[in-house]
Amino acid sequence: MTTTKFTAGDMFPTITLPTLGGDSVTLGQPQNGADWQLVVIYRGKHCPLCTRYLNALETYKAQFLALGVDVVAASADSQAQLAAHMPQLSVSFPIGHGLSIAQMQALGLYISHPRSEQETDHPFAEPGLFVINEKGQVQVVDISNGPFARPELEVLLSGLAFIRNPENDYPIRGTFA
């Protein structure tokens, strides 16, 4: 299978997903007065590591926002699966659901089939993390093919503080072609 991976500095695609509240969230379009956005793609309700990661992300949300970085998450789970997952989550950031295979492919994510019906009932994205800058470009990208390989949130926060500091004049890295 051929897949497209993001090149650092690429424009992030426009992907709008429904949320549980009947609203929608557009990935890569910051809200809450922020000019950057952290987009976390997670595997779904069936993944206890995802639940832990999303709950941990909530504890850093205010610090990300203080840097001007809004936080959103999304998965391929259905509305019913997200609703069933919410009692395990202690998060206040928007979570989109219904990420399609085409959208997962557009994001360059690894996609897995469920191992059984007990896991889930649809193909799902493996973890992905994108930081979108004020120009809509992918400033930071981390794509994994397994739930146990994700950026440490405290390290990510520290790195973004360094990048966002104008005195550091830190460019998008990894653009050598």
TrEMBL record:
Keyword Oxidoreductase listed: yes
Lineage: Bacteria, Pseudomonadati, Pseudomonadota, Gammaproteobacteria, Vibrionales
Keywords tagged on the record: Oxidoreductase, Peroxidase
PROSITE patterns: THIOREDOXIN_2
Organism: Photobacterium aphoticum
Alphabetized Pfam families for the sequence: Redoxin (PF08534)
Recorded GO MF terms: peroxidase activity
Name of the protein this chain belongs to: Thioredoxin peroxidase
Domain of life from the UniProt record: Bacteria
Domain Thioredoxin residue range list: 6-162
